[in-house]
Amino acid sequence: MGERLTKLDWLKHGLRTLADNGPGALKVGPMAAKLNVSRGSFYWHFQDIEDFRSELLQHWQETSTDQIIDALDARPNDPELLRDLLHEAFARQPRVDRAVRSWAAHDDDVARLVAAVDERRIARVSQLLVDAGVDTTRAAHRALFLYWAFLGQAAVADQRHRSLAKDALNDIAHLFGGPD
């Protein structure tokens, strides 16, 4: 890269590195070499590798959860929100989420962050269901079940079974989001 890298450039590269090679590959020298820049570029934006890893996880949380929930919250309450969320969630590439979860299995700090992200995601889906007329207890159960399905999608090895047509997702949204 000929131009100066931004903090965001480093974070995006970090997520790709994490997804491709795991947390052990999050090292300054190899990442800088891959980007064809000096290590000084890294240290311009981050104090050290721990600072980078912390900001990387924060960036993952913001892009995979906070921004999506904020976009939902900015829309007027409408029964199509659950459908739209399912379309977005199940269309995403699960590589980064899978890598973060794998990292969490070996790092308590990462595990705490992932648990907080899970809690926020499930709570927001549950609220969408309540807003659609589902009672609170059933909404919590349905939200958890939908979240399990979302997480399980990443584990499916056969590409033929890793996605559903929009009509199928619409049907599932209707099934889960309808009043009792």
UniProtKB/TrEMBL annotation:
InterPro entries (UniProt xref): Homeodomain-like_sf, HTH_TetR
The keyword DNA-binding is annotated on this UniProt entry: yes
HTH tetR-type domain location: 13-53
MF GO annotations: DNA binding
Origin species: Microvirga lotononidis
Any Pfam family: TetR_N
Protein name: Transcriptional regulator
Keyword match DNA-binding: yes
Keywords in alphabetical order: DNA-binding
